[in-house]
Amino acid sequence: MWYGFKKNNYTNFYLHIPYKWNFLFLISSCKNFLFFIFFSKDYIFKFKIKNIKYKLFFDKNTNLLKLSLLYFNNFNKIYWNFLTLIFSSIYKPFFKKIKFKGKGYYIFKTLKNTITFQFGYSHRLYLYSYFSSVVFLTKTVILVFGLLKNDVLKTSYNIIKVKKLNIYTGRGIRFSKQIIYKKSGKVSSYK
Asked: What's the CA gap between 128 and 148, in Å, rounded?
């Protein structure tokens, strides 16, 4: 997490580098820009900072990166706030809980994070989730989680699209706290 304070006209920023993440620090030829590249096995972040005077320190024991900048304006404050949001997403994973209801409905998962549905269709349906993980809490409850909210939502909506909720019987796939209104069946007017 980034946080900064002023001392001796320098604004100091501290960033804790998460486990299994690395970074590169590059200086442009005109020395007006600092380039940072943070990367892991799955993700990469690249950004640059315009500055003339800087100090950089990295502690290997605590994985703490300290950056001191002499020049700091309001645009850079907005930039650092967005950067804080990006790095806070590394520490805060997103979750979606999905439930399904129906007789003979099963969902399987392979080691490669491929989800297979068995919902009474004549063929098997496969769903590939590359950047989000799926965990089975019970036989009918699935938990989808990951670092990026868009990946988690895309995977969970693709799961729900496989077997939409039947408004008459209530069988199908839905989100955990989704409100469901059942429709009453048609009653014949002839008795």
From this structure: 16
pLDDT in tens, 18-42: 777 888 888 777 767 778 888 888 7
Distance of alpha carbon 17 from alpha carbon 76, whole angstroms: 21
- Report the C-alpha gap between 55 and 150 in whole angstroms: 36
- Assess if CATH 2.60.40 describes domain 3-91: yes
24/81 Cα distance (integer angstroms): 21
Task: Give me the phi and psi of 120, to 5 degrees please.
Answer: 85, 10
Q: Phi/psi at 32 (nearest 5 deg)?
A: -100, -15
Q: Where in the chain are the domains?
A: 3-91, 94-175
Helices (H) and strands (E) in the chain, counts: 2, 14
Q: Are 174 and 99 in contact (CB under 8 A)?
A: yes
**SS3 state of residue 146:** strand
Token representation of residue 173: 């796939």
Strand 10-16 and strand 3-7: the pairing is antiparallel
CATH class of 94-175: alpha beta
Tens-place pLDDT, residues 56-107:
888 888 888 887 777 666 666 676 677 666 666 666 778 899 888 877 777 7
Residue type for position 63:
N
DSSP labels for 68-97? EES---HHHHHHHHHHHHHHHHHHS-EEEE
